[in-house]
Amino acid sequence: PLSRRAVWRPPLPHLAGRPLARGVVRGLLLAFGRSLVAVEGIERIAPAQDPFILVLNHNTKLEALLLPAFFLHARQGKALHFIADWNFKLVPGVAGIYRAGDVITLDRKPARPRWLNVFRPLLTERTPAFARAAERLAAGASVGLFPEGTVNRDPNRLLRGFHGAAQLSLTTGVPIVPAGIRFPQHRAAERIPELAPMGIEFGAPLVPPVAPDAVNAAAIRAWHATMMQALARLSGKRWSHERKFHA
């Protein structure tokens, strides 16, 4: 687990001049970093590997805050732009965390209760999230997302997932880095709880098999299946939706 010294000692040069962002990152790791008990292959998301698309299975709400902060810290403060739902900004303090990580806001899910949707135009951008992600990749930066699209506490199965990451990879020519989150102290018969100790294993980059000008619906479906199968191996879960896809 991350020690207090390991959290505070690195200088985070890519966040020079941004004391609030450094404070947010370190504060999150001090508060929740001990939940992260094992990491393998972190060099695969080092700044020297940019650009890439990081994809992870999604098991708890905490992951959406803790892991972007951890990756930012591990990359010496260099942003890894996560795509995340806009309605998390309604939670006090989360908007500041989004700014610290330069998160790309996804305008897809409605807020609950419904009246909170009046804030939607104030907390989202006109340019679609995946268009902004493509711009970041073209500029040499990296992005990250949870392709399952929602929290999935099933300890054995991955959700079907959405095609956004696969399509973004194929149309930009940028490789996908799959990362599996596991819970070594959790019983496989029970739903995964918040704050369960977790480990992360980063897999080898998946290089797009077709050129951007040859992308079609079949290629996207096949690439999505390849990505989700890699996530299944790394997370220790099953994915069995090869012939059932989201539109």
Notes on the structure:
- The chain is an alpha/beta fold and 247 residues long.
- It has helices spanning 4-8, 19-32, 63-74, 94-101, 120-123, 129-138, 164-172, 217-235, and strands at 36-40, 53-56, 80-85, 104-106, 142-145, 176-182, 198-202.
- A seven-stranded mixed β-sheet has the order 1-7-6-2-5-3-4, sandwiched between helices.
- β3 (80-85), α4 (94-101) and β4 (104-106) form a beta-alpha-beta unit.
- α2 crosses α3 (63-74) and α2 crosses α4.
- The longest helix is centred in the C-terminal third of the chain and has 19 residues, at 217-235.
- It starts with a helix and ends in a 12-residue tail after the last helix.
- The mean pLDDT is 90.
Write the layout of secondary structure elements.
Blueprint: H1 4-8, H2 19-32, E1 36-40, E2 53-56, H3 63-74, E3 80-85, H4 94-101, E4 104-106, H5 120-123, H6 129-138, E5 142-145, H7 164-172, E6 176-182, E7 198-202, H8 217-235
Parallel strand pairs: 1-7, 2-5, 2-6, 3-4, 3-5
Antiparallel strand pairs: 6-7
Quick recap:
With 247 residues, the protein is α/β, with parallel strands linked by helices. Helix content is 33%, strand content 14%. The protein has 8 helices and 7 strands.
Order of helices and strands: HHEEHEHEHHEHEEH
Unreliable stretches covering 5 or more consecutive residues: none
Count of extended strands: 7
β-strand amount = 5-15%
Shape: globular
User: How many alpha or pi helices?
Assistant: 8
What strand order characterises the main sheet?
1-7-6-2-5-3-4
Helix content: 25-40%
Mean pLDDT: 90
Content-based structural category: alpha/beta
Q: Please describe the biggest sheet, giving its number of strands, its sense, and whether it closes into a barrel.
A: 7 strands, mixed
Gap between N and C termini: 40 Å
The radius of gyration over CA amounts to 17 Å
